[in-house]
Design a protein that fits this description.
Layout (H helix, E strand, L loop, with lengths): L4 E4 L12 H11 L4 E4 L4 E4 L2 E11 L7 E3 L3 E4 L5 E4 L7 H11 L6 E3 L2 H6 L2 H4 L10 E4 L2 H11 L2 E5 L9 E3 L6 H11 L4 E5 L8 E7 L2 E9 L14 E4 L4 H16 L4 E7 L2 E6 L6 H6 L5 H13 L1
Parallel strand pairs: 1-2, 1-7, 7-8
Antiparallel strand pairs: 2-4, 3-4, 4-5, 4-6, 9-12, 10-11, 10-12, 13-14, 13-16, 14-15, 16-17
Helix pairs in contact: 1-9
Bound molecules: adenosine-5'-diphosphate and magnesium ion (MG).
């Protein structure tokens, strides 16, 4: 079958093709012969309720420094596409939320992956709280006394901004750390959102595992081991990807999440597990599929397009 595909993503000239999952999806779509169009979120428009974008045909190649060619721009109704891939990276801010509202308008004529309304309703560190028995002890607040109580109870904690990404402003505070008060003050003027305060998970030194689910089914995983001098496992912070398998607990976590993800049209999801605990459910623009394939795992881009084809039949 052929699908007319558009991808909404951040500027293509800035991606790192070795790690970029969107790029992997584009390569696979092109190999299947789908015509591909590209646009950035700022190209969206809604006129009298009709959503359009200035799109450009795009051709991709797996070659560093010379990986894409764009054709002539044209403005088109967005519901002219069979599929729109919503692959915009966070920040998950009002601009992001607005684009989910616009993309909602082209459904169900166009299949938007992931479903924009559910992307909007499932910020990664909030969605997890729907599964309290799977996550570590976690508090979301800006209230000082409530944080102090949590800290007194758990001792060793991690504090991070609720809408942070890529390891930004993630702090570990040992029980006797006297910097707590200043950190709290600094945060109050830097961020408008609440903190996530979490029990410190010592298993982090073994890694933070990214597990990909495609339409609610386990598809592949990669472990990310932090650099010896950092708490954070994010690859942009020097975390090293390693091949891995699922533990029985991780299989349980996938089985629990599967139906919830499927129901919500969250077709391409990356969850993060540290030790036995689920810490994030990434639905905006998960990464990891290129490293999973490089390390000998499944071809998840192919699995995703197989699923999309099935849904469009
Ligand atoms: N509760 C925790 N215990 C131990 N390490 C943590 C904890 N929370 C976060 N980290 C470390 O910080 C990194 C980034 O935190 P994370 O919650 O994944 O936010 P981000 O959205 O920035 O990736 C994790 O990959 C992990 O290495
Ligand atoms: Mg993370």
């Amino acid at each position: 079958m052929s699908l007319n595909v558009a991808v909404q993503m951040d500027p293509i000239e800035r991606i790192n093709i070795r790690g970029d999952s969107t790029f992997a999806l584009l390569l696979e779509a092109q190999a299947r012969g789908y015509p591909l169009s590209y646009y950035t979120p700022d190209q969206l428009a809604m006129r009298d309720g009709k959503v359009s974008a200035t799109v450009r045909p795009v051709a991709v190649r797996d070659k560093a420094g010379d990986y894409f060619t764009l054709g002539e721009p044209r403005r088109t109704a967005l519901d002219a596409f069979d599929v729109v891939l919503l692959r915009q990276d966070p920040p998950f801010d009002l601009a992001y939320i607005t684009s989910t509202h616009m993309l909602e308008r082209i459904q169900p004529k166009t299949l938007v992956v992931n479903d924009p309304a559910h992307v909007r309703n499932a910020p990664e560190k909030v969605f997890v709280t729907e599964f309290p028995d799977l996550m570590p002890p976690t508090l979301i607040t800006r209230d000082l006394d409530t944080i102090k109580k949590f800290r007194a109870e758990h001792g060793d904690i991690v504090m991070k901004p609720l809408y942070g990404k890529g390891g930004e402003a993630v702090f570990r505070l040992a029980p006797e750390d006297l910097n707590f008060g200043s950190l709290y003050d600094l945060f109050a003027v830097t961020f408008r959102e609440p903190w996530v305060v979490q029990k410190f998970l010592p298993a982090v030194k073994e890694g933070d595992k990214r597990i990909i689910l495609v339409d609610g089914e386990f598809a592949g995983a990669v472990n990310r081991v932090p650099a010896p001098d950092d708490l954070r496992s994010n690859m942009v912070r020097g975390g090293v990807p390693k091949a891995t398998d699922l533990t029985p607990r991780e299989r349980d976590i996938c089985a629990r999440l599967g139906p919830a993800l499927r129901e919500r049209g969250l077709l391409f999801v990356g969850i993060d597990v540290i030790g036995d605990y689920l810490t994030e459910i990434n639905v905006t623009s998960p990464t990891g599929i290129r490293s999973i394939k490089t390390l000998g795992g499944a071809d998840i881009a192919a699995l995703i397009w197989d699923k999309i084809e099935k849904k469009r039949k």
